[in-house]
Amino acid sequence: MAVFFRGSQNLLQKLKNHVSFANVSSRAMASKTPVGFIGLGNMGSHMAKNLLKHGYPVFASDIFPESCKEIQDLGAQVLDSPAEVADRADRIITMLPSSPNVIEVYTGLKGILKKVKKGSLLIDSSTIDPSVSKEMAKEAEKMGAVFMDAPVSGGVGAARSGKLTFMVGGVEEEFTAVQELLTCMGTNVVYCGEVGTGQAAKICNNMLLAISMIGTAETMNLGIRLGLDPKLLSKILNMSSGRCWSSDTYNPVPGVMEGVPSASNYQGGFGTTLMAKDLGLAQDTATNTKTAIPLGSVSHQIYRVMCARGYAQKDFSSVFQFLREEENQ
User: Does the active-site annotation cover 202?
Assistant: First the structure.
């Protein structure tokens, strides 16, 4: 009976929270113009929810209909294609996996640019090749719209809590309008320069992230083999000069931290495939600019091998598990 009572209380609390969320959103929505959101994956779904929480009516679309159910239940209107979103909203945010996805969503047969209105503001938070951002900006300009690149950092946790960092590239005069929307989803919104510079900043950040994650995984593995307790080693690292985001916020060793992918068999989070893709972008831009990135190149190869060894869908912190398995072969 006690178990049933506690279960009923939990259900009532969830319903209460949902009703409260709906009431706050519906009151605010009456005074705010709609926002389109395309791409409701691990990151995009939380970002779109935060727009709803801040009172913006949302027109959403995703290639996978099942990804739309939760946000539809929270009050978003789900549409069948990017073109339909563009027909209903003049401010649109896209959050997509790769450059080809962005090209298709913007310029495809049912793409945004088929129905975009003049004066529309198009914000792409995907991580893609800077040259693709520049090309999309040119195509949008032909239709009388403005395209800005605004990739994010912070991971799923920051997307959920509305604490992302946005790196914005594009027409500076439009930054205030972009900032208004992005501050609903993040705590840091930084203007980087012309179109493509947001992507440049993101690629550099993710290259460093990959390098530091591999370094953290190697360090933790060595310490464990030397007989150190992983929680103790993590504590020491995080009060010493080796401290980094991969060690103090996103530790790759199972059992060291709660609420991170390593605590749940590396499910969720930022996939190894996406990290390999971002490192490929870094490698391509480094080649084009004749920039030496020896650690970035090695990191790229490690994540490519991981993708081929069954880690593609796991979080990128699974490099710790990969290194442990390599030792046993």
Answer: yes
